[in-house]
Amino acid sequence: MSKTVIGVFREENRAKEAINALKSQGFDDREISMIAKDRQVEGRAEEKRDSFTMERQDLSEGVISGGALGGIAGILAGAGALLIPGVGPIVAAGPLAAFLTGVVGGGLVGGLVDYGIPEERGRYFESRVKGGDILVTLKVKDNDAAKVEALLKRYGAEDVESH
To answer: Lowest CB count within 10 Å: 23, 33, 63, 109, which one?
Structure first.
């Protein structure tokens, strides 16, 4: 069996350190996911709101320019930008990003539920992302869950849970 371990980071550098530590402990970076608001794209949309709408905006622009989250998305495979209803522009990397592209209509909560997070907790984690925090998740074998939880906490993660 496997579990999904999830943690919330307030600081980008702490999330990046945790992801690098997970990779150095032998966890496959293709199993690590990260979700965060794309602050650069959000800022440009605010500046230019009179000239276009978010629906016509190319959200991949922020990731490609390397400005999104100071490069945190670049440390994981498959980083991309999405516009999630109710949340806005986000940067998503890892396998959770694939769940989100398939459930954009269900928002971030739907993607988290499909990834094994209970709906109530999914709503909570969505609110944290809306507030500017960073989610880091990892699918692991049951016997690795406690190790991953401890590592995330050591790097400052809050609300660390396994589901």
So the answer is: 23
Does an H or E element contain 159, and which? strand 158-162
Q: In the chain, how many domains are there?
A: 1
150: CB partners within 8 A, 6+ apart = none
Instruction: Provide the 8-state DSSP code for 23.
Output: H
Range of the domain at 153: 2-162
The helix or strand, by DSSP H or E, that contains position 140, with its residue range, turns out to be strand 134-141
Query: What is the pTM for the complete model shown?
Result: 0.76
pLDDT in tens, 5-62: 999 999 999 999 999 999 999 998 888 999 998 765 544 444 443 333 334 333 334 3
Q: By CB neighbour count within 10 A (0-12 exposed, 13-18 middle, 19+ buried), where does 163 fall? A: middle
**Distances from the Cα of 161 to the Cα of 6, 106, 121, angstroms:** 5, 22, 10
Enumerate residues 6+ apart whose C-beta is below 8 A from 115: 4, 33, 95, 96, 99, 137
